[in-house]
């Protein structure tokens, strides 16, 4: 299925990196339509061992299935061609990271890309994987409540027209679902070159009671921030076109409504 | 077609008129529904067949019987006072509704076909609906628990979502395990921490809804006749859904408390006259669901309602009242005699327009995956050659 290269120094065959021209696809998929997407009915039956195949699984006697000894904690939403995954892989070798992408060919490119990287660098890139799925529908099928520590929205589709705003990957209802899969104190990173979309994301995240914006000054110690500009294919394209880049980072906080009720009970 | 009963009032709704009947005095009133007050006229949507197809007709009394709501024309929610029949509000909804229910405090929750749920205040009857939550899939059922702490929504994918209430931006859990759309959810009346659900996959599932933990799954579909299933498939075919289904989809799921430890469960189906009867007992952690009987109704039920320990079933031809005898449901001839006038009214009032939700429950999937994978294979084979 995949092209192989002969590696003279190691005298083994390795996979070649996939060529993007074979994986191009129309930019926008309708996230609301009934796509033919395979997804687990619930997180309990998701088999992560096939995605992180070099990690030795343990046997869960309760459910009689093989599972990993740790959870996926970082998710790149709409990962495109996977540039961020590749960057994060080496920065966080001990964390499991998954990219989720709705377009068939694009996700297939990332899958082939990761396979090629793993074969070229045998001990690396074992902690990243890509799944073709619709993150606007199926996140709770993959992740338990509070499982995720970081979530990335890099250069999401802008859907300029007002009628298409409901396709935007951030809105009031979807934020409730993101808040559900995120742990308290988990971080949400957003980056876009479209000012209008930036303002939209900031506005929605700001008014949502379960998210709090992290001021720029507090971000300097986070090594991920600088990678958000250039790691992804879309980010590189924006640089080539001298476009703007707008960053906004939020923290998942506990529910102020519950907190206020607790205070009420104590006093 | 819809009806509701509270105290001595029955309200029946046809396409654009509402019949209110007093069981004691036998006084009847018919009210025509008002025109929707809206600047822009409602145009038929060309875009989503889901929205245009089905007109939900729903009437319901509030728990205390003070109010009833009517949701008949597309996107219109009318609220009436029962005693005076005064129209309190005539509000516009964002989208066509798929389920409307009163909360214990008389506010109204509306679930719609685009997947959103709205809260309409009754104390402020002119206020617009306020968005509570949204799924990316049509909502088929919704409920707010009796303590008004949780709101539970079920959709055309397989999801049941439990959110806090009124802070509904905070999702408490998901009850995941159904393999098809979920048409009905109901809290077990004698054990209010348990949720029952059913839909298109031939199972009745029970959940500890606060944690989303699955407690029990009951398979019932082999109890139903193949000819009913055939009817489902014929109907679907008429709507250009060629892929046959193997399980009759659930239309109604009703739970009625018998005593401290037991409730009965009734399930009805699309394209079927059958009604399955179960008993659920839940003592502590021991959930027990026992199959009791299959009742064959005269026609496919349009609606079922409990009233004073009786089951009232609305059908095309008439309303029929059943009672539970410990094992099964039998016709209560006495009560049926008493509603003869009502039945006569119903038969003249009823216009035979029976829209069914059935065709929009199933998905028309388009497959672009297979084609892509085949082309990729070809490309790689060519390369090798
Ligand atoms: C403009 S691209 C950016 C990709 C990548 N993050 C980058 O920076 O290069 C947005 C991506 O999100 C994907 N996407 C859009 N909606 C999605 C959804 N509901 N689920 C998963 N992926 C989605 C699109 O297919 C597209 O590849």
TrEMBL record, chain A:
Amino-acid positions noted as binding S-adenosyl-L-methionine in the UniProt annotation, renumbered to this chain: 78, 101-102, 134-135, 154, 232-234
Active-site residues from the entry: 157
InterPro entries from the UniProt entry: SAM-dependent_MTases_sf, Trm8_euk, tRNA_(Gua-N-7)_MeTrfase_Trmb
GO CC annotation terms, alphabetical: nucleus; tRNA (m7G46) methyltransferase complex
One Gene Ontology MF term: tRNA binding
Superkingdom of this protein's organism: Eukaryota
Source organism of this protein record: Ceratosolen solmsi marchali
Alphabetically ordered keywords of this record: Methyltransferase, Nucleus, RNA-binding, S-adenosyl-L-methionine, Transferase, tRNA processing, tRNA-binding
Pfam hit, one: Methyltransf_4
Location in the cell: Nucleus
PROSITE patterns reported in the protein's UniProt record: SAM_MT_TRMB
TM annotation in the entry: none
Similarity section: Belongs to the class I-like SAM-binding methyltransferase superfamily. TrmB family.
Pathway entry: tRNA modification; N(7)-methylguanine-tRNA biosynthesis
Official protein name in the record: tRNA (guanine-N(7)-)-methyltransferase
Predominant cellular place of this UniProt entry's protein: nucleus
Enzyme Commission number: 2.1.1.33
From TrEMBL, chain B:
PROSITE patterns hit by this protein: WD_REPEATS_1, WD_REPEATS_2, WD_REPEATS_REGION
GO biological process, one term: tRNA (guanine-N7)-methylation
Primary localization: nucleus
GO CC terms of this entry: cytosol; nucleus; tRNA methyltransferase complex
Location(s) in or outside the cell: Nucleus
Domain of life: Eukaryota
The UniProt record lists the keyword Ligase: no
Keywords: Nucleus, Repeat, tRNA processing, WD repeat
Name of the protein described by the UniProt record: tRNA (Guanine-N(7)-)-methyltransferase non-catalytic subunit WDR4
């Amino acid at each position: 299925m995949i092209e192989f290269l002969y590696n003279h120094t190691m005298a083994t065959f390795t996979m070649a990196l996939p060529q993007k021209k074979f994986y191009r696809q129309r930019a926008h998929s309708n996230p609301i339509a009934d796509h033919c997407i395979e997804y687990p009915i619930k997180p309990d039956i998701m088999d992560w061992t096939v995605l992180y195949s070099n990690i030795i699984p343990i046997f869960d006697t309760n459910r009689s299935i093989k599972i990993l000894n740790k959870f996926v904690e970082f998710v790149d939403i709409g990962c495109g061609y996977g540039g961020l995954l590749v960057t994060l892989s080496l920065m966080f070798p001990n964390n499991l990271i998954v990219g989720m992408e709705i377009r068939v060919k694009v996700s297939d490119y990332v899958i082939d890309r990761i396979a090629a990287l793993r074969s070229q660098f045998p001990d690396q890139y074992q902690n990243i994987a890509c799944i073709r799925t619709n993150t606007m529908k199926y996140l709770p099928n993959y992740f338990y409540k509070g499982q995720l520590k970081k979530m990335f929205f890099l250069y999401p589709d802008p859907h300029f027209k007002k009628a298409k705003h409901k396709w935007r990957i951030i809105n009031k209802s979807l934020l409730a679902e993101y808040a559900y899969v995120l742990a308290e104190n988990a971080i949400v990173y957003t980056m876009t070159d479209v000012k209008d979309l930036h303002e939209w994301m900031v506005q929605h995240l700001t008014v949502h009671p379960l998210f709090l914006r992290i001021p720029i000054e507090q971000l300097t110690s986070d090594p991920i921030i600088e990678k958000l500009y250039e790691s992804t294919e879309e980010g590189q394209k924006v640089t080539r076109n001298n476009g703007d880049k707008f960053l906004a980072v939020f923290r998942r906080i506990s529910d102020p409504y519950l907190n206020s009720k607790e205070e009420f009970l104590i006093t | 077609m819809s009806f509701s009963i509270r105290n001595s009032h029955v309200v029946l709704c046809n396409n654009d008129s509402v019949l209110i009947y007093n069981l004691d005095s036998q006084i009847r009133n018919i009210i025509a529904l008002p025109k929707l007050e809206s600047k822009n006229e409602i145009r038929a949507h060309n875009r989503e067949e889901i929205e245009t197809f089905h007109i939900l007709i729903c009437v319901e009394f509030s728990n205390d019987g003070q109010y009833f709501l009517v949701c008949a024309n597309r996107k219109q929610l009318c609220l009436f006072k029962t005693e005076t029949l005064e129209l309190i509000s005539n509000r516009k909804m964002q989208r066509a509704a798929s389920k409307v229910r009163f909360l214990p405090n008389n506010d109204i929750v509306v679930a719609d076909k685009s997947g959103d749920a709205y809260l309409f205040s009754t104390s402020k009857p002119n206020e617009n609906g306020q968005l509570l939550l949204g799924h990316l899939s049509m909502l088929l059922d919704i409920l707010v628990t009796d303590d008004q702490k949780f709101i539970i929504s079920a959709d055309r994918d397989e999801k049941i979502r439990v959110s806090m209430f009124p802070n509904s931006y905070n999702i408490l859990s998901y009850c995941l395990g159904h393999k098809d759309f979920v048409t009905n959810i109901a809290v077990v009346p004698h054990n209010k921490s348990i949720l029952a659900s059913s839909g298109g996959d031939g199972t009745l599932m029970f959940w500890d809804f606060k944690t989303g933990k699955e407690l029990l799954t009951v398979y019932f579909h082999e109890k139903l006749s193949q000819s009913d299933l055939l009817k489902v498939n014929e109907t679907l075919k008429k709507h250009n859904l060629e892929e046959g289904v193997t399980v009759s989809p659930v239309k109604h799921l009703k739970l009625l408390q018998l005593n401290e430890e037991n409730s009965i469960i009734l399930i009805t189906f699309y394209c079927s006259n059958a009604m399955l009867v179960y008993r659920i007992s839940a003592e502590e952690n021991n959930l027990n669901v026992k199959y009791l009987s299959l009742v064959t109704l005269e026609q496919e039920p349009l609606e079922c309602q409990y009233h004073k320990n009786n089951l009232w079933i609305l059908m095309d031809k008439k309303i029929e009242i059943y009672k539970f005898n410990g094992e099964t449901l039998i016709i209560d001839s006495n009560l049926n005699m008493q509603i003869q006038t009502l039945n006569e009214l119903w038969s003249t009032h009823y216009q035979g327009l029976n829209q069914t939700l059935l065709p929009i429950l199933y998905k028309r999937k388009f497959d672009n995956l297979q084609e892509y994978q085949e082309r990729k294979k070809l490309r790689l084979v060519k390369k090798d050659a």
